[in-house]
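Quick log. Single chain, no ligands specified.
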Amino acid sequence: AWLSDIHLNFVSHQKIEEFSREVEKSGAEVALISGDISEAPYLRNHLNTLAEIIKFPIYFVLGNHDFYRSSIDRTLDLAKNISSNSANLVWITAEDIVKLSDETVLLGHESWNDGRIGDFENSPYTPADFFMIEDFMGLKKDEKLKLMQSLAERAADHFKLNLPKACHAAKNVILLTHVPPFRKACWYNGKISDDDHQPYFASKIAGDTIREIMREFPAHNLTIYCGHTHGGGEAQILHNIKVYTAQAEYEKPSIQRIDGIK
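-> predicted structure:
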Protein backbone atom coordinates (compact mmCIF):
# COMPACT_ATOMS: atom_id res chain seq x y z
CA ALA A 1 0.00 0.00 0.00
CA TRP A 2 1.46 3.33 -1.07
CA LEU A 3 0.69 6.37 1.12
CA SER A 4 1.90 9.92 0.63
CA ASP A 5 1.37 13.43 1.99
CA ILE A 6 -0.97 12.15 4.69
CA HIS A 7 -0.24 15.19 6.92
CA LEU A 8 -1.48 13.52 10.11
CA ASN A 9 -0.99 16.73 12.12
CA PHE A 10 -4.18 18.03 10.46
CA VAL A 11 -6.42 15.18 11.63
CA SER A 12 -7.67 13.84 14.98
CA HIS A 13 -6.14 10.85 16.77
CA GLN A 14 -9.37 8.95 16.09
CA LYS A 15 -9.07 9.63 12.36
CA ILE A 16 -5.42 8.45 12.39
CA GLU A 17 -6.52 5.19 14.03
CA GLU A 18 -9.35 4.75 11.48
CA PHE A 19 -6.95 5.37 8.60
CA SER A 20 -4.41 2.94 10.08
CA ARG A 21 -7.10 0.24 10.30
CA GLU A 22 -8.01 0.89 6.66
CA VAL A 23 -4.37 0.30 5.65
CA GLU A 24 -4.09 -2.78 7.89
CA LYS A 25 -7.21 -4.31 6.26
CA SER A 26 -6.19 -3.38 2.70
CA GLY A 27 -4.64 -6.75 1.93
CA ALA A 28 -1.21 -5.17 1.44
CA GLU A 29 1.98 -6.86 2.64
CA VAL A 30 3.99 -3.65 3.15
CA ALA A 31 3.26 0.07 3.40
CA LEU A 32 5.38 2.65 1.58
CA ILE A 33 5.11 6.30 2.68
CA SER A 34 6.65 8.92 0.40
CA GLY A 35 6.89 11.71 2.97
CA ASP A 36 4.88 14.54 4.54
CA ILE A 37 3.71 12.25 7.31
CA SER A 38 3.33 14.99 9.94
CA GLU A 39 5.51 17.75 11.46
CA ALA A 40 8.65 17.14 13.52
CA PRO A 41 7.19 17.56 17.06
CA TYR A 42 4.42 15.01 16.33
CA LEU A 43 6.29 12.63 14.03
CA ARG A 44 7.19 9.99 16.63
CA ASN A 45 3.67 9.85 18.03
CA HIS A 46 2.03 9.66 14.60
CA LEU A 47 4.38 7.01 13.19
CA ASN A 48 4.05 4.92 16.35
CA THR A 49 0.25 5.08 16.10
CA LEU A 50 0.44 3.80 12.52
CA ALA A 51 2.85 1.04 13.57
CA GLU A 52 0.69 -0.12 16.48
CA ILE A 53 -2.26 -0.81 14.18
CA ILE A 54 -0.54 -1.71 10.89
CA LYS A 55 1.17 -5.02 11.62
CA PHE A 56 3.26 -5.33 8.44
CA PRO A 57 6.47 -3.38 7.62
CA ILE A 58 6.12 0.38 7.05
CA TYR A 59 8.92 1.84 4.93
CA PHE A 60 9.07 5.63 4.93
CA VAL A 61 10.97 8.69 3.80
CA LEU A 62 10.36 12.16 5.18
CA GLY A 63 8.92 15.12 3.30
CA ASN A 64 9.64 18.82 3.75
CA HIS A 65 6.69 19.20 6.17
CA ASP A 66 8.18 16.56 8.46
CA PHE A 67 11.04 18.99 9.19
CA TYR A 68 8.65 21.83 10.17
CA ARG A 69 9.17 23.32 13.66
CA SER A 70 12.65 21.77 13.85
CA SER A 71 15.95 21.55 11.98
CA ILE A 72 17.00 19.17 9.22
CA ASP A 73 19.66 17.28 11.19
CA ARG A 74 17.52 16.95 14.33
CA THR A 75 14.64 15.57 12.29
CA LEU A 76 16.86 13.08 10.44
CA ASP A 77 18.20 11.91 13.82
CA LEU A 78 14.60 11.60 15.02
CA ALA A 79 13.65 9.44 12.02
CA LYS A 80 16.63 7.19 12.68
CA ASN A 81 15.71 6.88 16.35
CA ILE A 82 12.03 6.13 15.64
CA SER A 83 13.02 3.46 13.13
CA SER A 84 15.62 1.80 15.36
CA ASN A 85 13.13 1.59 18.25
CA SER A 86 10.34 0.00 16.22
CA ALA A 87 9.77 -3.55 15.03
CA ASN A 88 8.01 -2.54 11.81
CA LEU A 89 8.94 1.09 11.02
CA VAL A 90 11.85 1.36 8.59
CA TRP A 91 13.34 4.72 7.61
CA ILE A 92 14.47 3.57 4.17
CA THR A 93 16.98 6.44 3.74
CA ALA A 94 19.20 4.79 6.36
CA GLU A 95 19.24 1.50 4.42
CA ASP A 96 21.10 0.71 1.21
CA ILE A 97 18.50 -1.51 -0.40
CA VAL A 98 15.77 -3.75 1.02
CA LYS A 99 14.69 -6.96 -0.69
CA LEU A 100 10.88 -7.18 -0.88
CA SER A 101 10.88 -10.41 -2.93
CA ASP A 102 13.22 -12.41 -5.17
CA GLU A 103 12.47 -10.06 -8.06
CA THR A 104 11.86 -6.71 -6.32
CA VAL A 105 14.05 -4.44 -4.19
CA LEU A 106 13.32 -1.10 -2.54
CA LEU A 107 15.46 1.96 -1.94
CA GLY A 108 14.61 5.52 -1.00
CA HIS A 109 15.63 9.00 0.08
CA GLU A 110 13.75 12.21 0.93
CA SER A 111 15.42 14.29 -1.82
CA TRP A 112 14.80 18.04 -2.08
CA ASN A 113 13.66 20.50 -4.74
CA ASP A 114 16.81 22.09 -6.16
CA GLY A 115 15.65 25.21 -8.04
CA ARG A 116 17.25 23.94 -11.25
CA ILE A 117 13.97 23.47 -13.15
CA GLY A 118 11.75 26.46 -13.90
CA ASP A 119 12.54 30.09 -13.07
CA PHE A 120 13.90 30.28 -9.52
CA GLU A 121 15.12 33.89 -9.84
CA ASN A 122 11.78 35.36 -10.89
CA SER A 123 9.34 33.03 -9.15
CA PRO A 124 6.93 34.99 -6.91
CA TYR A 125 6.26 31.82 -4.92
CA THR A 126 7.70 31.52 -1.40
CA PRO A 127 7.40 28.06 0.17
CA ALA A 128 6.53 27.74 3.86
CA ASP A 129 9.79 25.76 4.24
CA PHE A 130 11.65 29.08 4.47
CA PHE A 131 9.72 30.07 7.63
CA MET A 132 9.08 26.64 9.16
CA ILE A 133 12.46 24.88 8.94
CA GLU A 134 15.19 26.37 11.15
CA ASP A 135 18.00 25.88 8.60
CA PHE A 136 16.30 28.20 6.09
CA MET A 137 15.37 30.97 8.53
CA GLY A 138 17.23 34.24 8.01
CA LEU A 139 19.01 33.10 4.83
CA LYS A 140 19.26 35.31 1.74
CA LYS A 141 17.71 34.01 -1.48
CA ASP A 142 21.01 32.74 -2.93
CA GLU A 143 21.83 31.02 0.39
CA LYS A 144 18.43 29.31 0.38
CA LEU A 145 19.10 28.03 -3.13
CA LYS A 146 22.52 26.75 -2.07
CA LEU A 147 20.99 24.85 0.86
CA MET A 148 18.21 23.40 -1.33
CA GLN A 149 20.82 22.20 -3.81
CA SER A 150 23.08 20.67 -1.17
CA LEU A 151 20.09 18.72 0.22
CA ALA A 152 19.18 17.57 -3.31
CA GLU A 153 22.78 16.49 -3.89
CA ARG A 154 22.63 14.24 -0.82
CA ALA A 155 19.79 12.36 -2.49
CA ALA A 156 21.57 12.19 -5.85
CA ASP A 157 24.65 10.74 -4.12
CA HIS A 158 22.47 8.18 -2.35
CA PHE A 159 20.88 7.10 -5.66
CA LYS A 160 24.27 7.03 -7.41
CA LEU A 161 25.53 4.59 -4.79
CA ASN A 162 22.45 2.44 -4.22
CA LEU A 163 20.42 2.36 -7.45
CA PRO A 164 23.08 0.28 -9.31
CA LYS A 165 23.21 -2.03 -6.24
CA ALA A 166 19.44 -2.40 -6.46
CA CYS A 167 19.58 -3.23 -10.18
CA HIS A 168 22.26 -5.86 -9.56
CA ALA A 169 20.06 -7.41 -6.85
CA ALA A 170 16.74 -7.64 -8.74
CA LYS A 171 14.99 -6.91 -12.03
CA ASN A 172 12.28 -4.72 -10.51
CA VAL A 173 13.29 -1.73 -8.42
CA ILE A 174 11.02 0.55 -6.38
CA LEU A 175 12.37 3.99 -5.46
CA LEU A 176 10.56 5.89 -2.72
CA THR A 177 11.12 9.64 -2.55
CA HIS A 178 9.20 12.77 -1.60
CA VAL A 179 10.19 15.26 -4.29
CA PRO A 180 9.43 14.43 -7.94
CA PRO A 181 12.74 13.91 -9.78
CA PHE A 182 11.44 15.07 -13.18
CA ARG A 183 9.52 18.05 -14.56
CA LYS A 184 7.04 15.65 -16.16
CA ALA A 185 6.23 14.18 -12.73
CA CYS A 186 5.30 17.53 -11.12
CA TRP A 187 1.53 17.31 -11.43
CA TYR A 188 -0.86 19.92 -10.07
CA ASN A 189 -4.57 20.25 -10.91
CA GLY A 190 -4.27 17.72 -13.71
CA LYS A 191 -1.37 19.36 -15.51
CA ILE A 192 2.38 19.83 -15.23
CA SER A 193 3.36 22.65 -12.85
CA ASP A 194 4.47 25.99 -14.29
CA ASP A 195 7.94 27.58 -14.16
CA ASP A 196 7.06 29.56 -11.01
CA HIS A 197 6.43 26.35 -9.03
CA GLN A 198 8.88 23.92 -10.63
CA PRO A 199 11.93 25.31 -8.71
CA TYR A 200 10.20 24.23 -5.48
CA PHE A 201 8.54 21.07 -6.84
CA ALA A 202 11.27 19.12 -8.65
CA SER A 203 14.80 17.82 -8.12
CA LYS A 204 16.72 17.98 -11.40
CA ILE A 205 19.93 16.51 -10.02
CA ALA A 206 18.07 13.48 -8.64
CA GLY A 207 16.31 12.97 -11.98
CA ASP A 208 19.48 13.33 -14.03
CA THR A 209 21.24 10.80 -11.79
CA ILE A 210 18.38 8.29 -11.97
CA ARG A 211 18.03 8.61 -15.75
CA GLU A 212 21.75 8.13 -16.32
CA ILE A 213 21.85 4.97 -14.18
CA MET A 214 18.73 3.37 -15.67
CA ARG A 215 20.13 3.83 -19.19
CA GLU A 216 22.84 1.38 -18.09
CA PHE A 217 20.20 -1.19 -17.03
CA PRO A 218 17.79 -1.34 -20.00
CA ALA A 219 16.36 -4.73 -18.99
CA HIS A 220 15.41 -3.52 -15.49
CA ASN A 221 12.23 -1.72 -14.44
CA LEU A 222 12.25 1.24 -12.05
CA THR A 223 9.02 2.40 -10.41
CA ILE A 224 9.22 5.71 -8.53
CA TYR A 225 6.63 6.73 -5.93
CA CYS A 226 6.76 10.42 -4.96
CA GLY A 227 4.49 13.15 -3.60
CA HIS A 228 5.00 16.79 -2.59
CA THR A 229 2.90 18.56 -5.25
CA HIS A 230 -0.48 17.16 -4.04
CA GLY A 231 -1.38 16.68 -7.74
CA GLY A 232 -1.71 13.10 -8.91
CA GLY A 233 -0.36 11.77 -12.18
CA GLU A 234 1.86 9.27 -13.96
CA ALA A 235 4.91 9.90 -16.15
CA GLN A 236 6.88 7.49 -18.34
CA ILE A 237 10.40 8.96 -18.37
CA LEU A 238 12.26 6.17 -20.20
CA HIS A 239 10.96 2.77 -21.29
CA ASN A 240 12.17 1.49 -17.90
CA ILE A 241 11.33 4.46 -15.60
CA LYS A 242 7.72 5.01 -14.50
CA VAL A 243 6.87 7.73 -11.96
CA TYR A 244 3.70 7.91 -9.88
CA THR A 245 3.00 11.23 -8.14
CA ALA A 246 0.48 11.28 -5.28
CA GLN A 247 -2.87 13.06 -5.29
CA ALA A 248 -3.32 14.49 -1.80
CA GLU A 249 -5.60 16.75 0.19
CA TYR A 250 -5.10 18.12 3.69
CA GLU A 251 -7.31 16.46 6.34
CA LYS A 252 -8.01 13.50 4.02
CA PRO A 253 -5.26 10.87 4.35
CA SER A 254 -5.77 8.11 1.79
CA ILE A 255 -4.22 5.02 0.21
CA GLN A 256 -2.78 6.01 -3.17
CA ARG A 257 -2.40 2.57 -4.71
CA ILE A 258 -2.17 -1.07 -3.78
CA ASP A 259 0.21 -2.92 -6.09
CA GLY A 260 1.26 -6.53 -5.97
CA ILE A 261 4.98 -7.12 -5.42
CA LYS A 262 6.45 -9.29 -8.17
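The chain is about 35% helix and 20% strand.
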